[in-house]
Structure formats: structure tokens, C-alpha cells
Amino acid sequence: MNAQIRKLFYVFAFLFVALVGMSSYWLWRAPDLEARQGNPNLVVRQLLIERGLVLAADGETVLARNREQEVDGQTWYRRQYPQRGLTAHVVGYSTVQRSRTGLEESLNDYLTGSNADLATLLDRAADTLRGITRQGNDVVLTLDANAQRVAMNALGGQCGSVVALEPASGRVLVMASTPTYDPNLVENRFRQATRATGPCDPASPLLNRATGGFPSPAFIPGSTFKVLTAAAALDSGEYTPDSEFDDPGYCVEYGQRVYNYSDQAGPRAYGRVDLGDAVENSINSVFCNIGKELGPRVILDYAKEFGFYEDPPLETPGDERAPSGLWSNGRLFDPDDPNQIDPGRLAFGQERLLVTPLQMAMVVATIANDGVLMEPHVVDRIVAPDGDVVSRTRPDEVRRVLQQQTAAALTPMMVRVVSSGTGTSAQISGVEVAGKTGTAETGRPGENDTGFVAFAPAGAPRVAIAVYLQNQSGTGGATAAPIAKAVMEAILRSNP
Amino acid sequence: MSLRTRELLNLVVLGILTTIGFVSVYLASQEVPEFSTTSLSYAAFFLALFVVAHVVVRLRLPLADPHLLPIAGILTAIGLTMIYRIEPDTAFKQGVWVVIGVGVFAATCLLLRDYRQLDALKYTCGIAALVLLALPAVPGLGLEVNGARLWVSVGPLQFQPGEFAKVLLVVFLAGYLRDNRELLSMGYGRLGVPSPKHFGPLLLIWGGAMLVLLQTNDLGGGLLLFSIFLAMLYVATGRWPYVAVGLALFAAGSWVLYQAVPRVGDRIGIWLDPWEDADGAGYQLVQSIYSIAAGGVFGTGLGEGVLVRQDGATYIPYLETDFIYSAIAQELGLAGAAAVILLYLVFCYRGFRIAMSADDGFSKLLAAGLTATLAIQTFIIIGGVSGLIPLTGITLPFVSYGGSSIVANFLLLALLLMVSHHVAEQQEGRR
Which residue of B has its CA nearest to A46? Predict the structure, then answer.
């Protein structure tokens, strides 16, 4: 019987080796298994990381922090957003079930402390052995919490967005988008978090209207784009501030009349005007003729210098930013053949132009900064748990877009818009404001996209702003300009 | 160095390992790691228990194999440590069962003067095994847990008679096959196939196993009993066609059941594709696989794995019983899991060595049968929780939480050591 016993042992030895082999196979499959829905291991590993705080520019207002919980002898950290919807689009959310968005996603490595060199990696391995919690870096933003609150309150229940920049540095002081959502609800009550309503359909509360779109940007610039056309007209040398125009109340394109903006009295005819008058009163026919004269390529080339046709630069994830420009059937439209573009309508911001408020804020910030475009940034610094500054964002010049005299010539025209033109409701006592209104037709009667771009003080600008609203019955001067005024006041007050 | 001194040294190693295990689980469970003597005293008590067992062996079975008791000790310690890490209260109950198990071990060694007396009682053992197997089916006595009727409830006490039935069955088969092995080996035709009339007993036992399987809904138990029978039949006769036909019969029977009994069908369907219903029927196996994969080579460390949910329940149901291997694989890694499997392999090797050096057929078959029982049970459950074979719920010997299992396996160990001592005594007498 010994021969049989020996053989039986070999059989068992083989079966036991097969057992080890099977477990080894699952180890080999581990990377694939880890990512599967329902595998708690990766999820819990994430919960064991103490993510860094996200703070507003004051270094005190906490935008994202952690809630601790004891489970199975371990400390779990869950994300909490004390300001709820205030900065939900910039900060985003970090959840276990629904991944991450906003800075929580793009700065994940910093926030989890994974931005490591070899030395810190070794330290961390030792920490893991000792069971010490991994701690992330804190992120301090450039956002002015108070002005942000003013912007969110002013936008209220509308579908809109406000972006305010510091022209000389590119710091993002305000980035507001409505409707907003409560990021605290995303983990467990996602449907409730996204159940926002507004005068736009879809309301898309998760969308950052300030930088992104679905996939095209949310706003038609309308007459706010005339700032760019005027800049191109002057900077190209084809026109001067004194160039004169004759306005019959319309301009002729393709054999048809394109009328000026009309109120109850019908379209107005201004007669003999200069470029400043045309900006102040937002005269479509003048810009229509400028557009025909310059051609769409010149205008679009200037637009590209300002950043159009590229994702606006910012630290948020790329898929949350969309390029401004002409959009056709959900795609960016940039034809080589200029005949495919209506030059007149392009010049006063209609055609098929769609813009992000961040992009338009960059346009006015460039004018405010003597023609130099600064790269916008919303992260001021990243601070390690021991207080060391890991990185600090320095102002970065993108390029000179306009000659200094172009910017200098545009400013008084824009000041006239606020002092006596279409944007008087943006006046701030004691401060000279330069601005431009916009009321864009959406094709639906009584529903306009309205906008207002501005900077202040006009002599030494400290803030450049873009405000856009969807589906308004009033004009840009009546709807967007007061919001810009309130936010600029808050910024000028808190940064004297 | 005498055998017993070697055993004692092995037990010292066991003591050190146990202490490290308990202390590290204790430290991992603390918010601020702080040393305490509680875990040390648990380890000390555990070691003392095995020293008692050692003293009993030294007194009664001085020539027995010195490795089996320490291996059982290490496996028990690994089990206790994992259970303690999962749920300290359960570990305390398991501790009580280990005390009872060692008590049964000592009592068997001290009271059963000669295990060969069991030869005369083989039919009693066989009938007792059948009665035990049938007990859970008795109304008012049986208890259904997790869809299987393999529990008996007497007052506050609950136990799984199947665990003891397997030991009694081995005793019966050792005696029966020793008596009939010539008969079973004869009657071969030209093709080397036994004549049909000798399939009688085989068919009988097969029928019994299927009946047990049907009656109790316990696939793992049925598979275990039938596999033990086939292994011992092979050892006794050396005729592999018995094994082949037996396996074919079992497969055929299972296939019929697969069609007829939804539970069996489910098990095989889950095995073929656990992810088909990962949140429902396949949940246990899928979670078990996640756990094994998450351990990596060296594991997360004791107490550092992802085993217990926020609400205190374990991610894998029955983690401390059927699925303890998954917990070990995660926290001790592939290295730890392979070490556990290696321990069973060494146990198996020592057990078969005892069987091979035995002179009489009864001792040979008894030792081989007891060893095979442990090996098969280990393969069925580890293979099941890692997806190698369809999952059937049985315990991992010495490691899983479960009173009946612990006590029955200590009984198995006692019998094996008694055979070992007897064999060595005879060899010494001959010299």
C-alpha cells in the first residue's frame, strides 16, 4: 500500500501547488480587479489619506476639509465642503463613489501628497509600516471669498457666470457659476445634488459655465465682442479713434439690411459718428462695416491672440474648460475660406460665436493691462503639512496682444459706455469704470444672452470682470452691468 | 535530541510567533499604539495550553511524530489571531473551543489505551457516523444555517455532527477496507477493470454520500466524505479505475443535482463566472477574490487590511469560518497564505510517513485516511474561496472559527499521534 500512499501524497502536493497558483493568479490580476465597482480595497485606501485643505485667498475661509471617522481601528477621512455651493465649480468634489472634479481632481497628487520625490517616497513607505496616516498638502486659492459670495448672491437663481481677474497678475479673484450644487451631497445623494432648476434647460448645475460648456461654451458674446473688434480695428492700423462712419441705422450684407439694436421705437440711426460713439452706443451698423472691411480672418486672428480657439488656461481639469470661438454643430469652426463666415455679424458678436466668461475676462484684462495678456491662475500656493511652501504661482505673461496705444485708445471709449452709454448701471461712485454691454439674440424671442465686460479703476485697473447671463428679457446694461458693479465694488473694497 | 525535546522546541517557536501575532493585532487596533500585557497574557495562556498537550504526549506517546502537534498549534494560532483581528468576542469563544479541543485531545491520549481496539468497533463507528450524518435532518433537532442543514441544536449547544462523522468514517473504512482489500483487488477482467459485483460497496457509499448531500444540502460535506472514501479505497486496492469511476459517478450525480437542485446549480454557475451577479449570488466569491488580490505578496499587515465595514459587519460573509483563508491572504499576503498551505503540506507529508512505516493494514489505512481527510478538506475550502473549484462551505482545519471543527480535528490529531507512537514502538522493539 506504500506505493499508493506515495502517489496520493504527490496528488495532494500537486493540488496544494495549484492552490498557491490560483492565489498567485489573482495577485497577477490585481490591477484589473482593483478598479472594479464593488471592490472595497481601493476605496478604503483612498479614505485613509488625509487630503489637504482648500482655502480661499484670505487663508482662513475653508473651502474643503475632512471629516474623520473611526472604522475597524482605522481613521477614515471623508471630504466636507463647509461653503457648500460657493466655489463648487472651481474646487469640485472628491468622492469615493463618483471620482473627482475641479481642483480636487487636477491637484489630486498635491492634495494627497503623492507629488513626491524618491526621498519622500521612502519616508512614506516607512510611515505605512508604522501605520501613520498619509497627509496631503494644503492649497490656497486666489479667490476672494467675500467677492465670490457677492457674485453668487447677485447671480441668484439665474443661469450665469461671473469671472473677475486681477489684470496685472492674472489672479482669478471671482469665478462664479449658477445654478450651483452642494458638493457635500454628491457622494450619497447625487440626484438631489444635481436636481437644480433655473431659467435654462438643461440647468446643468455641475457645469462650470465660467470655463466650460457642453461641449461648446454657454454664452453668445453679442456686443461685448465689439471690444475685441474695436481693438483689432485700431491695432491693425486700419482705423483710428477719429475714424468717421455714417450710420443709416443698418448695414447691408449679402444684399440685405442688418439693423441696429431696436427698442420699442424701432432701430435707431445715429448719422455721422466716430469709433468712440460707436462703442458708447453699441452701433451695430458701424461694426458691421468694420467687419466687412477688415475681413473675418483679421478679427479671428486677434481673437486667437487673446486665447480664443484654445482651452482657457487654468489649473482646473482640461475637460472642464472649453475654447471660445465660432462653433458649428457642436464643433469648433475655423474655416480657411473667409466666405464661410459672416463678417458683419462676427464683428458685433453674433455669427456663431460662443465664449466663456473667463475668455472675455482675459480680453478686458489685457486692455486693462496695457495690451499684455497675463495667464489666469486660481491657485496661489501649495503648502506642505509642515508649513513649507511647495509651490507658489508667479504672474506669467502669455504675450503682448495689443500695442500700448491701442489699449490706451480703447479705455476712454469704454469709460464712455459706463459714464453715458449703454452701461450706466455699472457706475461706482468715486471710481472710473470702463465697460461694454452686450445683448445677444438667441433666436428665441424675448430670450437674450446678456453680458457685461469691464475693468476698474480705468486709470489704474485692479479688477477686470466678465458677467454673462442666459435667457434674459432685459439688456446687458440692465441685467449684467449691476452684477459687475456689485462684484467690482466688493473687490475694490477688500483690496484697497 | 529526543523527539519530545524537538517538539518542545517547535512549540517555543510557536509561542514566539503567537506572541508576535497577538501583539501586532492588538497594536493595529489601537488608535495610539500603546503596549498592553493583555495580548501577552493571551499568548502565554495559549502556549501553556499546548505545553499541557505536549506533557500528555510526553507521558503517553513519547515516540510520536514531533512535528504534527506544533503544526496544529501554529495553524490554531494563525486562526485565533485572524479571528481576534476580525472580531475579538468571537476569538474568545474560539479560545474556549481550543481549550475543549486540547481537552478532548488529552482525554483521547489518556483514556484510549490502544487505538487498535477501534478495529473491533468499526461497524459501531460506521453506524455512529451514519447516525451523526442523519441527525441534522431530524425535525426539532436540526438547524438550517445559510441554506444547509448540517447543524444540531441541543439546548444552548449547537454543533456540526458531520465534523465528527468524518473521523468515525475513517475508522470504519480503515477496518472495512483492511478486511476486504483482497476481495476488492481481485476479479479484474482483461482490461484491468474490476467486475461489477465489487462495485457494490462503492455504489452503496456513493448513494450514501449523495443522500447526505441531498438531505443536508451540504455540498462540501458530501464531497469531503466521498473523496475520503475514494482516497482510502485507492490506498487499499491500488486500483485507480475505482477512483476514476468514483469521480465519474460523483460528477454524474452532481450533474443530476445541478439540474434538479437549484442550489447546486447556482454554485457551479457562480464558479464559472463569479462576476455575472457580483452583488448577488457571486458576492461572496467576488469579495473573496478581491481580498486575496489586495494582499499582494507580503500582505497589508495584521489589522491593516480591508475586512470590516463601517457597520461592523465583514465585507465577506462568514469571513471567520469558511473564508478565513481570504482574510489571511489579504493581511499576510501570498507569502503568508503559501506558508499556511505549506504547513498543511508538511502535516500531510508527516501523516503519510506514519502510514507508510506502519506494519498492519489497519494502522496504515487509519493514518492515511486521517491525513487525507485533513488534506482534502483543506483543498476543498481553499480551492473554493479562491475560485479554483466550485465553492462549498466547509471549515479550514484548525484555522476556521467553529467548535465542532476544532474539537474534531484535535481528535483526528490524537489518533494520528497514537498510530505514530505505536508504529515507532514496534520498530524499536524489532531492533
Answer: B306
Q: Chain B contacts of A2, Cβ < 8 Å?
A: 356
What per-residue confidence (pLDDT) applies to B167?
93
Mean of the per-residue pLDDT values of chain A: 87
Q: DSSP of B146-160, one letter per residue?
A: TTEEEEEEETTEEE-
Domain residues for B415? Answer: 3-430
Across chain B, mean pLDDT equals 84
Distance of CA B355 to the CA centre of its chain: 18
Among A119, A54, A48, smallest CA distance to A81 is for A54
Report the CATH architecture of A145-379+397-494.
Answer: 3-Layer(aba) Sandwich (3.40)
- Cβ pair B372:A12 closer than 8 A: yes
Of A39, A73, A76, the CB nearest to B28: A73
- Say if CB B393 and CB B322 are below 8 A apart: yes
Residues of chain A in contact with residue B293, where contact means CB-CB under 8 angstroms, are 26-27, 29-30, 33-34, 41
Contacts of B355 in chain A (CB under 8 A): 1, 5
Residue A127 has pLDDT above 60, yes or no: no
Report the distance separating Cα B136 and Cα B146, nearest Å: 14
DSSP 3-state of B27: helix
Alpha helices in A262-399 (DSSP H): 275-281, 284-294, 296-306, 343-347, 357-368
Mean pLDDT of A401-405: 93
The CATH number given to A41-130 is 3.90.1310.10
DSSP H/E element including A89: helix A88-91
**In this structure, are residues B377 and B394 in contact, taking their beta carbons and an 8 Å threshold?**
yes
In chain A, what are the domain boundaries? 41-130, 145-379+397-494
Q: What is the C-alpha separation between B26 and B76, in angstroms, rounded?
A: 18
Write down the ipTM of this complex.
0.92
Ramachandran sector of residue A92 (left: φ over 0; alpha: ψ -120 to 50; beta: rest): left
Q: Could you give the number of structural domains in chain B?
A: 1
Question: Residue A19: which of B275, B304, B379 has the nearest Cβ?
Answer: B379
Is there a shared CATH topology between the A41-130 domain and the A145-379+397-494 domain? no
Quote the strand ranges of B120-249, DSSP E. 142-145, 148-154, 157-159
CB contact under 8 A, B238 and A4: yes
